[in-house]
Amino acid sequence: MSDPEAEKVAKNILPAYMDVAKFCIQLSVGILTLSIGFRETVLDAIGSKKPLLISWICFLISIIFGILYLHDAVTRITNYLSSPAKRDELKEFLPRVLRNPDKAYKVMGISFILGIIFLVVPTVCTLIKRN
């Protein structure tokens, strides 16, 4: 990857990944806050504590790994923009991220989706049984 390409990626593409991570973190925090605040209503809708607890754990994992991903991305961008000596490290990192986002990014996304599934599917099943 040439130096101008790496700079373009550092300034444009990585921030897009970071925006998705921030959005995922914000949604996870919001869902956790609401489901904990209204846990009696949510438990009544779900019908069991186990899916709700699994959902909460998944959202917490999503938040943790989202923060880890953001930390890693910000560190790499900062190093690239501030130190020419560290640009080689970023040049190796960027193609890997563009082809295959970091493990933290994957874990964040997968755990977020699992959290949604464990929150929504039991709720829908309970509502269908009641009607």
Describe what you observe in this structure:
With 131 residues, this protein is mainly alpha-helical. It has helices spanning 3-37, 39-46, 49-82, 87-99, 103-130. It has five helices and no strands. Helix 1 (3-37) packs antiparallel against helix 3. It has one domain (3-130). The mean pLDDT is 79. The protein is elongated, with a radius of gyration of 19 Å.
Terminal Cα span: 59 Å
Low-confidence stretches: none
Number of helices: 5
Structural class by helix and strand composition:
mainly alpha
What general form does the structure show?
elongated
| Helical proportion, percent range | over 70%
What is the average per-residue confidence, as pLDDT, rounded to a whole number? 79
Tell me the count of domains: 1
Could you spell the SSE succession in H and E letters? HHHHH
Main beta sheet: strand number and arrangement?
none
Radius of gyration: 19 Å
